[in-house]
Design a protein that fits this description.
The protein has 63 residues and is α+β, with helices and mostly antiparallel strands. It has one domain. The chain has 1 helix and 4 strands; from the N terminus they run H-E-E-E-E. The protein has one helix at residues 3-13; strands at residues 18-20, 35-39, 44-49, 57-61.
């Protein structure tokens, strides 16, 4: 099993939402606002909604 698969599987099991990356800027899946993000691996990023009233945290994965 690859390290990327293990990370994604762990995040899913912990209840985090994982969205696919596109060529467009990532927006919040709850309110549509822009997000701030950090790369946590070669293909996975953690995002936080910049809307203070929302604050939704989710992950994205590049196929």
């Amino acid at each position: 099993m690859s390290e990327e698969y293990s990370l994604t599987a762990c995040l899913c099991q912990c209840g985090f939402d994982i969205w696919g990356l596109t060529d467009q800027p990532t927006t919040c899946g709850k309110c549509g606002a822009r997000t701030d993000f950090c790369d946590i691996s070669a293909n996975v990023q953690i995002h936080k909604c910049l809307n203070n009233e929302c604050g939704y945290v989710f992950f994205t994965e590049d196929d």
